[in-house]
Amino acid sequence: MGKSRTKRFKRPQFSPTGDCQAEAAAANGTEPEEDDGPAAELLEKLQHPSAEVRECACAGLARLVQQRPALPGLARRDAVRRLGPLLLDPSLAVRETAAGALRNLSACGGFEVCDDMVTKDIMTPLVALLKECSTGLDSNEMSPQEKKDQNRNSIENIANEAVNVLWNICECSSRAVSIFNKEGCLEIVLKYLSRFSTNVDLAISVAYCLQTVTEDNPELLKSFSAPALHVLESAMLSPVNSMEYILLKTLVAGTIWNLKDIIPSKSQAEIINAILKILSEVLEMDAGETVLQMKEAETQRIKTAADTEGTLQNVNGDDLIEDDEMEDIPLRRKVRRKAFISDLLPPTDKELRETIALLTAQQTALEIIVNMCCSEDPTDDEWEELSSSDESDSFMENSLSECGGQLLSPLCLSHEVHTALTNYLIPKKIFEKTAFPNSTAVDVCSRNPSWKPLIRKMSIIQCRALVCLQSLVSLLDVDHLGGPAALQTLAQHLSQLLFSQPDFAKHVDFLEAISSALRALLQTVASKNIPQCMTPDQLLTLCRAGIHSSNVGVRVNVVSILGITGSVLAKEDGTLDTLKTIGCFLLEVATKDPSLVVAGEALDALFDVFADGKEAERASVQIKLLSALKEFQPVFKMKLRKEGRAKYSPDQLCVLDNVKMNLRRFVAYQETVEKKLTT
């Protein structure tokens, strides 16, 4: 139903443990319980006069909320309203664990829970906590120096938890974003971001939050002053190149892209080049090799630590307390949050944390490029002629801070983005990321439980690269993509990716991504009259597998692919049998698929395939296309009238209405074709 359009990527909701329910159950060694007995006990302890008891109760809730069956019980007992006041508890440890519990609740509970948290006024104590942390970081009253550093670290830890709660809630609730705007949260989180050189973890959390709240938020854009933009600029252009800083710079680059509407025309070229230079450097890194190197580094670190421990045991002899002896010793020190709340990873897993940071940075970079390609393009008469700069370092000379935050007309990005994408070899690097993950790295990760989740992350990068490839093929000129020969090579590459996996139909994300890329590629190749590289039999194999997918996007893609292929074959001689096969396939999809969106796409494909050409005319008569469409026409109208508004968006309904109108016209055209060939 028209040319495919890539969906923009929204920031994924943060989940500190991935599959919240499963991992929490595994951590506790128990299955999730149906009753809310533990919840009642823990919630009661939140009111205990002892700060240690309150802290332990918060930590227990932080684990409990990761079990989805426990969430209804917590909601019934008003857990949010009970935890909220503890964000301002006199004890810093209680504040941190309370924020951690709310962080996990907002991450694991989803949109409904986050919206309910806003309804129950969690934003009031949360904003107050963020303001107090900001004030605390500015305070110089703490002494001696050792105590000052300890308190400052605690405040930064609390701020990090609070920012993650804020990010999760703003991701899910427009009301939370509105409160963010009105309460001046931007100034607070930017102050946290400015500490990126001493606390990169906090800065990364802020960058995630900013990327969320700056998207489609014109009200907030007005609040970005020159100093605010300077903070972003400093973070994005940090000279530090550790993997965590690479992630930080990538996230900030995404935020700056969201601010494109307030950037003056004189800075546009430099800013676009600076953003794409960072994304290019991120994608340049070989994730598979990095996984292998970091896993080897971890192995060596653990071996060295074990050797050192063995040496100490030999020196100390029996004076060293064994683990089983430790169990009999009462625990007198305070229970710290990290003993209970399941954060992304323990701080000791340095290599794994850094590897995840790189993989996340690469995924984010690909998502930003897709969003850049999917920006609303201004009309031709609004485009400005801007000179492109290949030197992104000149961004410093023509600083973001100099724009003064004034609102200007939307960026006219076509020329600038296209040029920068080509200059930094972005298409080539994205092409490389579409390959399957390094098999050796996958094997290494599969043998280690803590590294095993990285296999999924590497696969996500491949899928994001395929979606990114779709965007680039749709956006860039053929010359920017390397010419016709490069497109044919790309088609062969995608074909090899697809058919090297015998069970490709089972991998829904991969199938949707690669079918989207193939659809865009075939559209471009057909529109430029470039010879097709994939045979009709290959495409039919893909389509027969994909049409049974539960994913509507996959089914729409494979139907469109057949429509494009058939419309090309209709202009050639000797294609009658293939056109008949394609026609029967599309006709069956149009009349039997439960989704009107897929059925409409199949009808649209039929219109394209059988719109012109002698072979197409003969094929349409032989498969009795006219009688089938006449019989289906009232059924389609009835389903559209009955299901339309209940199941489909206004945009989808508009397209389906056009299909209905085109169906009437196509039936009339087929009547003339049949009359011509039968007389």
Question: What share of residues are in beta strands?
Answer: under 5%
Q: How much helical structure, as a percent, in the residues?
A: 55-70%
Q: Write down the CATH topology of one domain.
A: Leucine-rich Repeat Variant
Please tell me the CATH architecture of one domain by its name.
Alpha Horseshoe
User: pLDDT under 50 segments (min length 5)?
Assistant: 11-35, 140-149, 318-345, 376-413
What's the level 1 CATH class of one domain? Mainly Alpha
Family: Belongs to the nuclear import and ribosome assembly adapter family.
Keywords: Erythrocyte maturation, Phosphoprotein, Repeat, Ribosome biogenesis
InterPro entries: ARM-like, ARM-type_fold, SYO1-like, TPR_SYO1
Function: Plays a role in ribosome biogenesis and in nuclear import of the 60S ribosomal protein L5/large ribosomal subunit protein uL18 (RPL5). Required for proper erythrocyte maturation.
